[in-house]
Write a structure and sequence with these properties.
This protein is an all-beta fold. It is built from no helices and eleven strands.
């Protein structure tokens, strides 16, 4: 069982930055790939970024490349999402998720993840 708790969301002006954190329970955190997803009102949950268990590979939604960086600290059981140059269209609830090392399928698909956090709201004003 893995429990994920996101933090760091808030209200920011366009062009600003936020760093989201996702703290995970469990001693096997380092074996999980981690992803960030977001969901805006009346829209489907959308992949934002993912990072492999070692941190050696990262993946991003095209529209956030160059503005967003995913990173992890396995010693702290935490994954981060640094978001810069935020735009109003980035407004959403952001969720972190984990998937086991044996999971298959693209990191971009929510159904390949086993555990989810409760989400943190990010609001970008214009």
């Amino acid at each position: 069982q893995v429990q994920l708790v996101e933090s760091g969301g808030g209200l920011v002006q366009a062009g600003g930055s936020l760093r989201l954190s996702c703290a995970a329970s469990g001693r096997t955190f380092s074996t999980y790939a981690m992803g960030w997803f977001r969901q805006a009102p009346r829209k489907e949950r959308e992949f934002v970024a993912a990072i492999t268990w070692s941190g050696g590979s990262t993946f991003y939604l095209d529209s956030v490349k160059g503005r967003v960086t995913i990173a992890r600290d396995n010693a702290k059981n935490t994954v981060y999402l640094q978001m810069n140059s935020l735009k109003p269209e980035d407004t959403a609830v952001y969720y972190c998720a984990s998937r086991g090392i044996k999971a298959s399928g693209s990191f971009r698909y929510p159904n390949t993840y086993d555990y989810w956090g409760q989400g943190t709201q990010v609001t970008v004003s214009s």
